Automatic annotation (TrEMBL):
Superkingdom of origin: Bacteria
Protein name per Swiss-Prot or TrEMBL: DUF4221 domain-containing protein
Species name: Hymenobacter negativus
Signal peptide boundaries: 1-25
UniProt KW keywords: Signal
Phylogenetic placement of the source organism: Bacteria, Pseudomonadati, Bacteroidota, Cytophagia, Cytophagales
Length: 421
């Protein structure tokens, strides 16, 4: 026979479960469609997973936007499509040419001498429907003039924009977020912009993101894991707060990446671009014939000894507080490149300054980073130790493998990798 205490315990559990089931059943059923224009229901806040193992520094693949894709907003699914249409019967002219070459000059001797370039009207259509594609939530159309403040006017004029990439939904900003890539066709010259549409399809903003290809920072537009902030590569957008600018006077942004939900790594190089004694933007200039899409820019990056002594990297919170400063120089070929790896088992990011040091950044507390000079790291020799995990860092200037003790990330051994084929 069961004791009275056991009986009371079982009865209490039964009543508790019954109450929970009753509360769950009390939610009203979904209402049928009404004659009012449909709007997107409020989305539940995104919840971070308990095991935070994602690499937030990974590069975005920049795939063109979805022609017809099922997306999740809060707890509901919707169908999103993005279309780009070019109208070759509606030319758009602009001068001066700036970064655009003679391949896009207006076919007239006088216009060519004046540096006039020609593109064509484009329409960018964003359509959101319910999950089965029957009800239209919104349909929004944008055009090239909407992007005139996001990139140089001459580049916007001639661009054939790929369908904007869908980056996700930010609950805090109430926005569907898109990455837009605006470039001179058949060249490596272009800019990026971040477009925000609210749940009714209204434009919340188009934020310029700076260069996207040649001379680009190591940065892609991103939403923080919780959706509370959006990185546009020139600023951080936050709900109910002004944008947090990442730009500095007399400095070039070289990298910006989320490290965790509330913290970023931001790297600058201090100095200024100074043009040489040439005439930029002229379509009559040498090496700018009718086949040139983007003439070579003739400039130098000028920096001073005092600027070269300044800390270049910051661990920056999304509130704008600088948590840590140190010197770090990314790789640079046609664009900046953070030579890096995500050591998931140890919960740390590995950043390599070529030929100098390894910077180990704990994801949970990035301000507690530490630096390990490469010359002082012990060389890896077999056998591999019980808690060591290998992580390769390969870039234009670095080919190294680090064996990190996942229980003590300060214990690192290094191995040089053979040259690439």
């Amino acid at each position: 026979m069961k004791s009275p205490k056991c009986f009371l315990l079982v009865l209490s559990l039964f009543l508790l479960l019954t109450a929970c089931e009753t509360r769950r059943a009390s939610h009203p059923a979904e209402q049928p469609d009404s004659a009012q224009p449909p709007t997107l229901p409020a989305a539940a806040p995104n919840v971070l997973p308990t095991a935070d193992t994602a690499d937030l520094t990974r590069a975005y693949n920049r795939e063109p936007g979805p022609r017809d894709s099922l997306i999740l907003v809060g707890s509901r699914h919707y169908r999103l499509s993005v279309r780009v249409e070019t109208d070759s019967t509606k030319p758009i002219d602009f001068a001066p040419a700036g970064s655009v070459g003679g391949a896009f000059a207006v076919p007239s001797d006088s216009a060519r001498r004046a540096g006039v370039v020609r593109g064509y009207a484009e329409t960018y259509t964003f359509t959101l429907r319910d999950s089965v594609g029957r009800k239209t939530i919104f349909r929004r159309q944008l055009h090239k003039p909407d992007f005139y403040k996001a990139a140089p006017r001459d580049i916007v004029t001639v661009t054939n924009m790929p369908p904007p990439s869908y980056l996700g939904y930010s609950t805090a900003l109430d926005a569907l977020v898109f990455g837009c890539y605006i470039g001179i066709p058949f060249s490596d010259v272009g800019h990026q912009a971040t477009l925000l549409l609210d749940r009714q399809g209204r434009v919340q903003g188009i934020s310029p993101g700076g260069p996207a290809y040649s001379d680009a920072p190591d940065c892609d537009p991103r939403i923080s894991p919780s959706g509370r902030a959006v990185l546009t590569c020139t600023e951080v957008l936050r709900a109910s707060q002004p944008p947090l600018s990442l730009l500095k006077p007399h400095a070039q942004l070289r990298a910006a990446r989320f490290l965790n939900d509330t913290t970023l790594l931001v790297v600058h190089e201090y100095g200024d671009y100074v043009e040489r004694s040439t005439t930029p933007g002229s379509l009559d200039a040498a090496e700018d014939g009718p086949d040139v899409t983007a003439p070579m820019s003739d400039y130098d990056f000028v920096t001073t000894p005092a600027q070269r002594r300044l800390p270049t990297a910051q661990i920056l919170s999304t509130s704008g507080r600088v948590l840590r400063q140190f010197r770090f120089v990314p790789d640079y070929e046609l664009a900046s490149d953070l030579a890096r790896a995500w050591a998931r088992a140890a919960g740390v990011y590995l950043f390599v300054e070529a030929g100098h040091k390894l910077v180990v950044v704990p994801k949970a507390h990035p301000e507690a980073l530490f630096e390990l000079p490469l010359k002082r790291l012990p060389k890896f020799r077999l056998p591999q130790r019980p808690h060591e995990q290998p992580y390769s860092v390969i870039s234009g200037f670095t080919r190294l493998r680090f064996y990190v003790d996942t229980l003590n990330p300060r214990a690192v051994r290094m191995q040089a990798l053979p040259p690439a084929d």
